[in-house]
Amino acid sequence: MTDPPEGVHHYDTADEVPFEISKYWHQRYEIFSKYDEGIWMTDDAWFGVTPEPVATRIAQDVASAPESKSILIDAFAGAGGNTIAFALSGRWKQIFAIEKDPKVLACAKHNAEVYGVAKKIWWIEGDAFTVLPKRLKQSGKNAVVFGSPPWGGPTYTDFEVFDLGAMQPYSLPQLHTAFSAISSDIVLYLPRTSDLQQLVKHAKQGEKLRVTHYCMRGASKALCVFLGRFIIE
């Protein structure tokens, strides 16, 4: 197995793991079932990666977009959890994965290799708000844009109702403006306590807003809001 670059880790034993990420490491097989095959992570990436069963179900639901949509753009690829699930679904002719942190991008590429799907993904290092209009605008008409943005760290759980307008570093209005300039079919992965009234404002007139909670062990982990033409059973 290739040694990970500086700042990237594969922790084998609990005594190697920094305290602040220990609870996530103990859930490592729910995050990546192939963890022992050499999954790479940065310490910060543990906070944002989607658990594999959730990512798999999201990929199934996003696949319900119209058949004319043949491209999937993952605007915040992170360590690759969602991107890998999209590639494994076999639904998309092209998948673009954007990540601005080069070390996290190295993790995503390597992890996709572990799952055997690295060659199905076009990797782009950069900020989604720059990459989308400059490099992917022409692809947008045939694309679904998926975004699992940073939520501002673990403190998002402190709020009974999460204010998406104050989400850091990117607010809901910022995300919607950037994504809707590229595609009319958008999926956002957000905290389970997100303020639904804020989400409703972005639905088109007469359009029902589709919100799906994704659960593990009977408890919601997060939700996705589907803006556009999705048929979810």
TrEMBL record:
Q: Which GO terms describe its molecular function?
A: RNA cap trimethylguanosine synthase activity
CDD domains in the record: AdoMet_MTases (cd02440)
Matching InterPro entries, A to Z? RNA_cap_Gua-N2-MeTrfase, SAM-dependent_MTases_sf
Q: Which Pfam families is this protein grouped with? A: Methyltransf_15
Query: What is stated as this protein's family in its record?
Result: Belongs to the methyltransferase superfamily. Trimethylguanosine synthase family.
Q: Which organism is it from?
A: Oleoguttula mirabilis
Q: What is this protein called?
A: Trimethylguanosine synthase
Instruction: Identify the PANTHER family for this entry.
Output: S-ADENOSYLMETHIONINE-DEPENDENT METHYLTRANSFERASE RELATED, TRIMETHYLGUANOSINE SYNTHASE
Q: Which reaction does it catalyse?
A: a 5'-end (N(2),N(7)-dimethyl 5'-triphosphoguanosine)-ribonucleoside in snRNA + S-adenosyl-L-methionine = a 5'-end (N(2),N(2),N(7)-trimethyl 5'-triphosphoguanosine)-ribonucleoside in snRNA + S-adenosyl-L-homocysteine + H(+); a 5'-end (N(2),N(7)-dimethyl 5'-triphosphoguanosine)-ribonucleoside in snoRNA + S-adenosyl-L-methionine = a 5'-end (N(2),N(2),N(7)-trimethyl 5'-triphosphoguanosine)-ribonucleoside in snoRNA + S-adenosyl-L-homocysteine + H(+); a 5'-end (N(7)-methyl 5'-triphosphoguanosine)-ribonucleoside in snRNA + S-adenosyl-L-methionine = a 5'-end (N(2),N(7)-dimethyl 5'-triphosphoguanosine)-ribonucleoside in snRNA + S-adenosyl-L-homocysteine + H(+); a 5'-end (N(7)-methyl 5'-triphosphoguanosine)-ribonucleoside in snoRNA + S-adenosyl-L-methionine = a 5'-end (N(2),N(7)-dimethyl 5'-triphosphoguanosine)-ribonucleoside in snoRNA + S-adenosyl-L-homocysteine + H(+)
Q: Can you quote a single GO CC term?
A: nucleus
Where on the tree of life does the source sit, at the highest rank? Eukaryota
SUPFAM superfamilies assigned to the protein according to its UniProt record, in alphabetical order:
S-adenosyl-L-methionine-dependent methyltransferases (SSF53335)
